[in-house]
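Worked example 3. Consider a protein that binds octanoyl-coenzyme A.
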Amino acid sequence: GESLETLLVERRGRVGLITLNRPKALNALNATLATELTGVLAEFDADEAIGCSVITGSEKAFAAGADVKEMAGKAYPQALLEDFIAVWDGFARLRKPVIAAVSGFALGGGCELAMLCDLIIASDSAKFGQPEIRLGVVPGIGGTQRLVRAIGKAKAMEMVLTGRMMEAAEAEQAGLVARVVPAADLLAEALKTAETIAAMPLPAVIAAKDCVDRAYELTLAEGVRYERRAFYALFASEDQKEGMAAFIEKRPPVFKHR
Ligand code: CO8
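Given these inputs, the predicted complex is written out as structure tokens:
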């Protein structure tokens, strides 16, 4: 596949696979990686031949955080004016699902990157943490907000204040990850889940992700109204007609948009 400076990119059928590829820096997220990653994801999102993406790292590290060597010397006005975190807002514009397949360290920005994805599948060797406090800063790509929503205030506060790491089993129990699998099966399991999603009718996939994401932003009553409008709207799709007809006729559906 296509090879960029910091990523390996391939297409596996309808799944876009992105492997973070800065092994010497444990996939630390530098500016080039952020630009390349959000760029490739936007391309996959716009590509009719792709239905779901997977982001993975190495066995040792999903990503060990923002690149400390690149960040260390920044002055306040430079950080403010560069707004070097804004590139990560690209994730909010993606409409197709992205899966994080996490093995080894997912620390700082690496843990935040995993949480920017729609779901996390972890290997039993995965370790999650927000160690920024030890560097004299705080999480900067949404970690303080998404971790609280994912695992609750008590565990999030402890992790953000102490920088301790959370093992895969605890992360699953706490609700940070969808599933833990043996390290050797991680990529296959993530790809299988991505293929399952990519085979679903795309209008329903986009609506489903959009509705679940709204649960972060809206009150329950507004969220339920939002979902109901999306539900009714899907009756305008050919795939709703096909999906329900196929069920009644006891045959596999042939979706048009997928
Ligand atoms: N940035 C830059 N380089 C790194 C990073 C990093 N985050 N993590 C590891 N590396 C480098 C090491 O410096 C080392 O390089 P070298 O061989 O040149 O010395 C190489 O990767 C291998 O690392 P180690 O030798 O340290 O490997 P160990 O197995 O001994 O330790 C650890 C692995 C525990 C993961 C250790 O590397 C570590 O603690 N890394 C830093 C973790 C960390 O503090 N992360 C948080 C960074 S701050 C952050 O993420 C803020 C996010 C919000 C802003 C985002 C803006 C983009």
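Take a moment to read the result before moving on. The two ends are 22 Å apart (CA to CA). The pocket of octanoyl-coenzyme A is lined by residues 25-26, 28-29, 34, 64-69, 84-85, 105, 107-109, 131-132, 135, 139-141 (CB under 6 Å).
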